Amino acid sequence: MTAQETETFTLNLMDQWGLTDRHWKFGWNNRKSALGLCRMRDRIIELSTYFWPAISEEQQKDTIRHEIAHALDFEQRGYSDHGPKWKLLAMRVGAKPVACVTLNVEEKDIQPSKYILICPNGHRFPSHRLQKRR
Hints:
Elements: H1 3-16, E1 25-29, E2 36-39, E3 44-48, H2 57-77, H3 84-93, E4 115-118, E5 124-127
Parallel strand pairs: 1-3
Antiparallel strand pairs: 2-3, 4-5
Helix pairs in contact: 1-2, 2-3
């Protein structure tokens, strides 16, 4: 999906789930450590401009739904994690109920990175900074 298609798709889903009525917004960021981010206190769902062009449309839509599940979870409980309640919401929204995903991208599709970070589940993420804490 193009950036405009992504924004339209996300805003439509946010509207469908009642998040726009609760003053949630959509935005882009330059993060190199995550596909998406739900900034709960600011009520913003953000997507990474760094990874977005390199991932499949299926992964894009799943990421959007994943972050919407976090927003809905926050609205219900005042916080969100990847626990059982979030997993139920993720499935209702249509997202895979998993905390992180393996990126199926070619190195040529994204900017080269100095470091490769590996999460406890074995997923690899390019990084321009060395992570100081786990």
